[in-house]
Amino acid sequence: MAATTAALRDPAPAAAAALTFPRPIFATVAPHPFLQAHLAAPQPSKAPLRANSRTAHEFRRVGINTGSLTHCNGSAVVRLGNTSAVCGVRAEILDEAHVQATADFAPSTGNETEEDAERERDEMESLRLLVPNVELSTGSTPQHIPGNAPSSFAQTLITRVRSLLLSTSLVRLSDLRILYAPPSNPDGLDAEPEPQLKGYWVLYIDIFYISIDGNAFDAAWAAILAALKNSVIPHAFWDEDLETILCSDDPSEAHSLTLRGLPVPSTFAVFEGKHDWNESGEAEEADWVLSDPDAFEETVCRESVCVVVDCTVGNKGTKDGILKSLEKSGGDVVDRDAMKGLVKRAVDRWAEVEKATNTKP
Amino acid sequence: MAPEAILSHLHRADGSATYTHNGYCIIGAVNGPIEVLRRDEMPEEATVEVNLRPAAGVGSPKERHLETLLHNTLRSIILTPSIPRTLVQITLQVRSLPDEDSSTGVNPSLTLLPHLLHTALLALLSASIPLSTTLTAVLIALPATNTPTASTQLLSPTAIELLRAKPIRSAHVFAFSGEGKMLLNESDGTFSYEEWDEAAEAAEEVCCREDGGVGLAEGIEVDGREGENLDDWLRSVVRTKVEQEQRWKSAR
Fold first, then answer.
1. What does the similarity note say (chain A) (predicted)?
2. Is the ipTM beyond the 0.95 threshold?
3. Contacts of B144 (CB under 8 A, 6+ apart)
4. Contact B197 A336 (CB under 8 A)
5. Least CA distance to A263: which residue of chain B?
6. Helix (H) or strand (E) holding A268
7. Is the pTM of this model over 0.95?
């Protein structure tokens, strides 16, 4: 209020003075030159800073708080700067009788071959045992007004989350199967009775955004990881007399999910600066790849890259990074060599997120 | 088998193309530059809108994701500042898919993506929308083997080849511009950076390297040179169309 009255009292500066803008006006009127001015500012010894005072390589610190929702099997609240998301995991039972076409049930062996992994993925996908949902229209950002149908951005986000969940095989099928071991083999033979499949646990994973300041995907995924790690599934068993699936009330019989690895995404945005040609006619390098873009940077950058790495496979920690997914679209600045640098940044980020998810809050 | 394309066959659209390859058939139509809704209007650029309709059923979030990828990629090659405050509307209808597409183990969005990009590009060329460069795209699949080497890569495989090579460890879609710059990459599965780099190398060779064309058009001669890359194929399609249209002019 005081600012507007001040502007009314003070008329526009004299025409002879250079045109200057206060920071927020500059950012709204000319976003591209605003960011360009920050990144291109001469600072001989230091790395260039973005408008949010981070360097180009710097990610925001991730804060995770788990177990705050009472009616979920697992939950997490994740803060990535001003982007914050809540994830709740709820488990419901799917009776085997309601499943249309059960795949040939084979009990999981100790060694997992590629064929087993493939079959497990097929089963999880066809039965829809993981149901993720993302809600952006919560008043978290002016681009998504509450009450509207899911926008194209929301639908893209949910598709990416779902396909990453399935392709990384993060949740083990064995954690979700409800088996029944009959006391004796119905065929009357001396052989060990085969366990029967009686049903599945279906996980409904819901993500709500409290606020979005860029990089919605990384925040959503971090929330899912933390919520799944926090999830506790009660022990379900088949009752022969009632001929139905019952759950045990005893928390000591419940099991948590043993996740397969820890895939962590890192999103980057490419800022194409104004290319000035120098005297010899070569275009000067003026593109920056910004880690973990915020909302302002996302409006100005066209090209984005998302690298998902998982360093839990080997025993050498971050030296054994395996890539789970790579997405890049919107421009031609990032080539194979630049991608190598981004994979390295993603591996470093993996270590940060791994520490955050494993420390008890 | 080389892909096939027919251009400008829809008379009510500004540009159109039907593209067929390996059992995938897609009809693309482009209308533009046309009037844009006030709320989508951009003062200094053209707005690009992509609509994708699947082979069966109505559009789902999967189609929205593909539309977003196509939108981002095509917007980077369309010269939008040259047609400001207009709309370039690209509609793609998937006419048919190979029967095995849903059981290959590779995400069906990935197998469809290169064909969508080619259809859209041909339709844009047919509509004479100003473009800064052409683009070509290819799918590379790395099956699960004990000794993964460059020779086990599947370049632009058919659905049956993918099914036979099951399980597939990772699948990669690359799109390159006419100058050889990487415009799009969607990679899924489990792979190391070295494997990705080799796949990118192979994709670049198939798409736009001179004297390339590994595994794409074996045994087919174009202008006397055996084995063309995708960029050459694209130019030959447009050249054939233009020659056909100009046949009366060059009749004498």
1. Belongs to the RNase PH family.
2. no
3. A114, B167, B168, B169
4. yes
5. B190
6. strand A264-272
7. no
